[in-house]
Amino acid sequence: MTLALTASLLALILTLGYAGLCAVSPFGNCRKCRGFGYALKTDRRGRLKPGKTCRRCRGDRKRIRVGRHLFNVAMRLHREALADHPRTATDRSSS
Hints:
The protein is of the alpha+beta class.
């Protein structure tokens, strides 16, 4: 196998793996609060306690994955394009 073929095969495997992950689990932990829903603060004694609610996830602790977001945008555009195009009698008979 050549280097280019190996690299493209690896890229294809990674892409399909990420697409599968987005299909199975569309939400992941928030990157800012790491899934806690708030920032961790320490009091004067050094003990951890909850701080402010995370602004990115608003305390939900989850975020939509980038791949799933792109898939949702593509599907929305596809649905809107189909809704704007009325089907005629010739379109229905050909399909």
